From TrEMBL:
PANTHER family listed in its UniProt record: 3-OXOACYL-(ACYL-CARRIER-PROTEIN) REDUCTASE, 3-OXOACYL-[ACYL-CARRIER-PROTEIN] REDUCTASE FABG
Organism: Mucilaginibacter pedocola
SUPFAM superfamilies: NAD(P)-binding Rossmann-fold domains
Protein family membership: Belongs to the short-chain dehydrogenases/reductases (SDR) family.
GO biological process, one term: monocarboxylic acid metabolic process
Pfam families given in the database record: adh_short
Protein's name in the database: Short-chain dehydrogenase
Length: 243
């Protein structure tokens, strides 16, 4: 069994890579930071890695070529996970921030998915989009991130309809606030991170932030069965999206 995880060198993607590696799957992980990828390849023997930047035009071509040439154009699961967060209040709105957000969370997953379609068709594979509770529930100052993740939720449903005739299922996990380095990686200061995390903790009905294993366990359940599930957006968020 073969799985491709974008942004698999950190946080949720790394947790997914570890899970599939432990189960003996062939795992291909992408990320921008070559050192993080090398560390992962050292920790998880046999894993394959590729440097890939979702914001760079045509960068997905090397992934598609890898799958065609090394994996005989076969793919069981594509996980569109790579992403970042940005605050975008009206007072500090920049074209580049908006365009980068939509490139990384909408354009790149669409083009990568298109490139992987033949390989997914060959194995009647599935697509798992990692979206966000911010794509379900609106928050002020998150217009770019919230609308990008909401867009990816809608793409999940559109692709599910379009790809069902090929036996390809498409679902999304929409995580709530989960303990990963995402805020540090996205350039937030330590003080801002503490503020955000305290506010989130109080807003979550189950009164705790998520752990990577909370997300991985649901992804593993989707990977191992759920044969009649497609077009679903699954909130894994301690209830924050319904609060
Ligand atoms: N943690 C949360 O609270 C939370 C909640 C809801 C949704 N999510 C979503 O879950 C996904 C994973 O987030 P995470 O929390 O695990 O974050 P993370 O620890 O920062 O990991 C993000 C991964 O994506 C890669 N990445 C980031 N920008 C990229 C780009 N432009 N091109 C290619 N790869 C890129 C990173 O690798 P490099 O740095 O090497 O590029 C890294 O491997 C994201 O889509 C995020 O929006 C997270």
């Amino acid at each position: 069994m073969k799985v491709l995880i974008t942004g698999g060198s950190s946080g949720i993607g790394k947790g997914l890579a570890e899970n599939f590696h432990e189960k003996g799957w062939d795992v291909l992980v992408t990320g921008r930071d070559v050192n993080k990828l090398a560390q992962l390849a050292n920790d998880l023997q046999g894993i394959r890695t590729l440097v890939y930047d979702s914001s760079v035009a045509d960068d997905e071509i090397k992934i598609v070529e890898f799958i065609r040439n090394v994996w005989e154009n076969k793919l069981d699961i594509l996980v569109n996970n790579a992403g970042h967060v940005a605050l975008t209040p009206f007072g500090n709105l920049k074209r580049e921030t908006l365009e980068n957000m939509y490139r990384v969370h909408l354009t790149a997953p669409s083009l990568l998915t298109a490139g992987c379609l033949d390989a997914l068709k060959n194995n009647k594979g599935q697509i798992l989009n990692i979206t966000s509770s911010h794509g379900i529930k609106p928050y002020a100052q998150l217009m770019a991130y919230g609308s990008a993740k909401s867009g990816l939720n809608m793409l999940t449903k559109i692709w599910a309809l379009e790809l069902a005739p090929f036996g390809i299922r498409v679902n999304a996990i929409a995580p709530g606030p989960t303990d990963t380095p995402v805020l540090t990686n996205s350039g937030f200061s330590a003080a801002d991170i503490k503020n955000i995390q305290d506010t989130e903790q109080n807003a979550i009905p189950l009164k705790r932030r998520g752990e990577v294993s909370d997300i991985v366990n649901i992804a593993a359940a989707l990977a191992g069965g759920a044969a009649w599930l497609t077009g679903a957006i699954i909130p894994v968020d301690g209830g924050i999206s319904v609060s």
